[in-house]
Amino acid sequence: MQKPAFLISIDTEGDNLWVNTKDISTQNAKFLDRFQQLCEKYGFKPTYLTNYEMAISPDYVAFAKDVIARNQGEVGMHLHAWNSPPLQPLTDDDDRYKPYLIEYPQTIMREKIAVMTDLLEDIFDVKMLSHRAGRWAFNEYYAQLLHEFGYQVDCSVTPYVDWSGVKGKPDGNGGTDYSQFPDGAYFMDLNDISKVGTSSLLQIPMSTRLKYGSLHNSFKQLYDGLRGKKRPPSTRWLRPKGNNVEEMKFVAQQCLDEGKNYVEFMLHSSEFMPGGSPTFKDDTSIEQLYRDLEELFEWLSQCTQGMTMAEFYQYKLMG
Domain range holding 234? Predict the structure, then answer.
């Protein structure tokens, strides 16, 4: 029996977008090689889900072309709707509010996906097969467009997480509620993306697991309701946040114990650069990140095998 896959998804985007919304820089491209070397040490193959500013960054393009040429990773698409052409203002300050792609008119959604897909394919001379939505916001029409443009994989679903309380445009409905979505890979119903269907678009949800049991969560939600608050259950992610290697291993072990055929890790490209994110602010925190990654990857190398998203698609097809 083959080992489950270890999938590494990197949201590849500008520096510290949590605070830097104008005049975006892409210095983090210079810090990706160290991470790539760590992945290759353990036989893992990242998927760099790439947005507009990185696609036109010479440093990143040179790095990613080398990864592709050596078959040591994949480039996919990541779309930040508010600054990805064609630009059409949706609020009085899109850089501040960062509206979701699903909040734009359908004609603009299509154009933005077409432009980004063509740009990436022209630059890297490979078919774009994998995708993640900006700010995790996804819906049926979005899925239908990805299918139309020939994508095989989406990895926007975050099981148990409800983003509806996180606004894009101020008068909008917020992000996508994934609280009732599957927590394993499935071919999507393009008319109801929360259900298994017969399309060729494979959803690879993030590896997230509930922090507490169902009884605890029910009590907590009842208590919050009495206080007039609505909060989703607490979750653990297979995602570094500083000194959390044991938590990441716990999430991965849960997935493997459940018989899942993959575990999926994510991070932003800017988080590999000191000061590129609120979490990893300096050299000391970056060194701790790499100690955690070394321990996590060494552990996972014993029980998983590295694949890109597109490779996992073929693995899934073969059963």
Answer: 5-317
